[in-house]
């Protein structure tokens, strides 16, 4: 049912946690399942995301997509990070079952919310 | 949104894992969110559940309810374990938001499936 990459990122999630004094923080909820996620970004003076962490109450698919999403946005500019869509994350994970696609939206929306939070502060 | 007990069992889940050569194993899926759970029971010759472990791909609410459910069935007879309903588990956790009640069904159903598996083998 789940690809090897999904199981790997579910069982060994990367970048779980919080960033104190993060440049941007985004909290989003998933209307479909009631799960929540918070994403923390650390953005340097050149607009490069040099750290990214997340916490979630969501399911294994939410954990795996967020883990992969944090890996994908690290080292990127804000413009590049905006192109890390849930589709790109799912492709990097070799797919998700259709019933779990809504879970992958949490990561994309949380990154956007955190970038928006950063933009508002600057 | 979540009680202290829910957060405790989510962040420090009890009895996660597998039991090799378990007396009963139950695997169930949640139609609403597509999540899966497997429950392992070890039942001695007197019909007492002396060990119980679980694995799930489910969300924080599924993890917390399963963790509490395994604590509640340990040391119980099969008859007593059948009374560990999702309602009893939610009460022991000081409640769950309505949108997450379906997640608590996974634990109840997985315990029932594992007891059924045990009954079929004996
Ligand atoms: S079911 Fe809620 S995030 Fe996957």
From TrEMBL, chains A, B:
GO terms for molecular function: iron ion binding; iron-sulfur cluster binding. Residues 1-122 form the NIF system FeS cluster assembly NifU N-terminal domain. Transmembrane segments: none annotated. GO terms for biological process: iron-sulfur cluster assembly. This is Fe-S cluster assembly scaffold protein NifU. It comes from Blautia pseudococcoides. The chain holds residues 1 to 122 of 145 of the full protein.
